[in-house]
Each structure stands twice: as C-alpha cells, then as structure tokens.
Amino acid sequence: MAGLGAAGITPFVGQTSGGQLTANPVAAATPNLAAPPPAAEPTVHGTPLSDLCKEERWKYDENPLDAWDRLLRHADENKTPDAEHAYRFKTFGLFYVAPAQDSFMIRLRVPACELTAAQLHGLADLAADYGGGYAHVTTRGNLQIREFKPKDIVSALTRVQELGLTSRGAGADNIRNITASPDSGFAPDELLDVRPHAKALHHYIVNHRDLYGLPRKFNVAFDNGGSLSVAADTNDIGFFAVRVTEATLAAAGVPAPVPAAGVYFRVQLGGISGHKDFARDTGLLVKPSEAVALAVAMIRVFAEHGCRTDRKKARLKYLLDSWGHEKFLAETARKLAFPLVRLPLAACEPHRPVEKHAWIGVRRQAQRGLNSVGVGVPVGRLSVRQMHALADLATHYGRGELRLTVWQNVLIPHVADAYVDTVCRGAKRAGLFTAASFATGGIVACTGNRGCKYAAADTKAHAVALMKHLEGRVSLSAPVNVHFTGCPHSCAQHYCGDVGLVGAKLADGTEGYHIVLGGGMDHEQGIAREIFRGVRATEVNALLETVLRAFEAKKSAGETFVQWTRRHSVKELQEFFSR
Asked: What does the pLDDT look like over 100-112, one tens digit per residue?
C-alpha cells in the first residue's frame, strides 16, 4: 500500500483550544502544524518574480546571451522578431527598428573610440554587402550600420567578429561602448593616456557574464584631462584624469597622511542628461591601476540593488537618489581589496577648460612633427565610399589608425607635417570637411525618425539643412554647439548644447521642435532652459539664424553663448528673438 506521502496527502497535526494535539482538522484551533512551509517565490537580487517588469522576466527565463540558436532560426527563416526576441537580440547589438525601417541595425563596440584602417575597410564592405551602404558615427564614439535583412544578421555578426570587433552588449540593459578622450596618446595637454583603462574595462565586461543584464543601460567614460571633451560628466561613471601636486595639497590644507603627488582619476557618478542630471564628484581619488576594479565593483553594486520593477527609475541616478552617494560608496568598498581614498577637489589641479570644436581641423600632437586631422562628418553619416576614403588616408598618411569622437566626427592621427594638406584635400574630395565656421562645426544629430521609431522628427535631415542655411550667413566670434534629438530619450543630449532641439509632433501632425538654450558640459556644465515650444521644422533655420545674430549683436566682449544666455531670463531671451 502506497504511503500517505506518495499519495500526495500530508498528515494533519493541530492543537485544540485547550492546547492538546489532534489529528482532526475540524477539532483543531490551528492550521496544520505538520504542513511544509509554502515554497518561497524566486527572486532576482531580492525582487520577487511577480514584481519584475516584463524585460526582467524575459532575462530570468533565459539569459539573452544564450540567444544564438534563436538568431540562427530567425536568419534561416528570414523572420522578423516579436517584442521578446527584439529585446533579446539587442544584447547582441542587433536592433529591429521597424516601423521606421523594416530591418535591423547593428551597433558596434569600439572601445576607447579607436579603430584601425583595416577594420574600417571591413565595416565598409559589410555595409555594402549586407546593409544600406552607409554607417553612422554615434554620440558614444562608435558606429552603427543599418538596413540588414533578418536573413543576414548572423552573417553580419560573424563578419564583425572576424574584424576583431564585437557588438555584444551594445544594446538592452548592458554597459555600452566604453569611451575615452579621442586624442588619448597624442594630445599635448593630456595628463594620462586613458585608452589602456577603457580597453581593459571593455575586455573585462565582454568576458564576464554577470556584467550583462543590468537593471538598465550603463555608460562609462575616461577623460584624459586634456582640452578635447568626451562628455564624461554625462555618464553613469566618469573617470577624470587629474594631477595632484605638493603645492595643491598644501594650498587645500589636506591633513596627513596625504597621497603622493602624481596623476590620478577622480570619479563622478550618476550622469543622465536626458533626465536633466550630470554626474557628480564623489570625492574619490583613484590610482589609475585601480580604476577598472573600482568600476567593476560599482557596476556590480548597481546590478544587485538597482530597480528591476520600473524601467523609468532603473538607471544608476535613481539608486543614488534613493541611497545617497555615501551608502553606494560603502557598498562598493565592501567588494574591493583596497581602500577608497578621499581627497577634496580643491587639492587637485583644476581640469583645463575644453575647447569647443577642437574635433575639427589640424592639431599638433605631442610627438614632434606629427598632427591629428579632425575630419567633419555631417551629422555622423558616412557612405561606404567615404569610409574607404578615410581608411585609405589613415593608411597612406598616418599609421593606419582612426579615432571616433562623441561629436560624430573622425580623427586621423600621426600625420606628418608634409602630408597635412594632402589629407585635408583628400577629406574634401570625399565630401567631408576639415574646417567649419563657429556656427556649424558643432552640429550633432541623433538617428531621427528615418531610422528610429521613437523619434518625432527627421533630425539628421533638418540638421544638415541648418548647416547649409547658416554657412555663409552667420559669422560668430565664439563656437556654438547645436544638438538635434528626436525624442525625450535625448541620445544627442539636447539639454547639454548651447542650442538644443527635441523633436515633437505638432497638433496638425507636422514635425516640429521644442528649443532649449544655454546648456553645456564640462566647465560650462548646466541644463538648457526651454525658450520656444512647438516650432515647425520648416521655421527652425530662420529662427536659429535670428538667435545667433542676436547673440553676436548683444553679447559683451569675450562672452560665450552660454554666458550670455544664462545672464538673461527666459522672458528677456524670448523678447530679444521676437524683435
């Protein structure tokens, strides 16, 4: 005869009201004291499954890194993905961008923003063979190639890998491309070549599965302390090279024990410009050799404690808002075998001001007789022909090396004095430029509604139209940055530009923009204020010409656009531009 357990029956043991044991449920005043405890609901870092948002539940059911067989099936069947698979494939850097385009986009990882000419040639061939014949330089110093059919996605991924590159983790809830000052290794004013640190963090991430599947995307940047901005203060973690001297320590009155004089990193946390917040200094002073370990510890704290129930509150900023920096740093310290060192910011030499538009034109390198040539790429769009042309210029007149910038342009370093003019002419023949006016040299744009379902406006086309409109019409005495972004996600960081435009659908269904003024990064850090709302796209060019002319006419001597706009109220600015 089968036992009670085998029959699925649990014996009853309870207590009567008088405290006596009974096997009769009817006579018992208690529940079954012999029943096993209810099974605990599984959790993800302490969050019950029932509370997870759908993306977190998908990740729990199967790690997106294990989607290779799914990719093969979709390619074999030339099949477009449903919502779940579209999300899973983003971990491989593949974005299904319908309805904007009924195709895939592949986003690469280009650690430290550095490419070889051979890689750029290979990517151009990939874009020609399987894509739409072009690529976009992004605001994270990497490349996106668009218009892949489902049947070609596996071929595209393997071609990227054969070039010594990867797209793994370039989308979804992962650590995005690790950026670095694009002139690292040759800038005359840099404090530290930060490329080894950016690349080391990249390789650590790529080789550790637990650093995928974060609560939300995560950005890290390394600033070399020079004058060419990498927008590090808009990242979740920004490492800034600083110099500490005996004089700065003495001037700040730092008590013993004091760190040795030298070059270190300061660490900023919590940048997310689309949510109107910059990264903030933590007070940490970090040896360069410890930076990667610190970054990994911080990312793991975020992975374990970030929000997994509300996608709108899942970025690092919101964990910092909830905990405060001190608790976050204490949790980080528990994961490290070395102590966290604090030093007042005043005990470091100030970061030199960045130079706007320093990514355009010829600049002397630290190496005698060599130059970097900053090549302007209108709104970051490169045709296959232009990609091959840049790779050829780098090969023939440099050292076969190129750098991408977060300003959607390309640097060709190590060009000898004798070849500078040749490279500039070659870029011009390719339809690119190495000189631009202060009105047009800093125009950046997100993908826009031709390639992104979230965008409300054709940002790249409108940005190019503005460049053509302003060139030759407006002459400025100080450089101005203009940021076009298609939606509140703010991929082009509109709140951080001298002029920012965010796309909007107007009441009549036409494309338009809300326009903000006076934003800045680095030494000009600040969130722009909205001045105009619901401006038709067809009216933007004339309006911004009026804005820039008013600035040039009314500013004080030596005053920048940021300084001028910030000393006036919104109402005053609106009145200036309506006259």
From this structure: 999 999 999 999 9
